[in-house]
Amino acid sequence: MMHMKNTYIPPAPAPAAPVETYIPPAAPAPAYIPPAPVQAEEPIIEEIEQPAQDGYRYKTVRRRVFRHRN
Q1: What is the pLDDT of residue 17?
Q2: Residue 30 Cα to chain centre, angstroms
Q3: Straight-line distance from the first to the last Cα atom of the chain, in angstroms, rounded to the nearest whole number
Q4: pTM assigned to the model
Q5: For residue 49, what is the DSSP state?
């Protein structure tokens, strides 16, 4: 005959009655503020250089070099 272990857990006691507390009303919602108008970007004016005496166009725009900061 096996001896069974008693694993009965009694139910938890009934919760206490809720305490009524005063909660003030929420602050009024802020008035609607329309978004600011978006300005159209100005077109970038690209200067077209005239060909040199030998007929070639030389690129004179400098490239931007970004240093990586670690």
Answers
A1: 80
A2: 22
A3: 74
A4: 0.19
A5: P
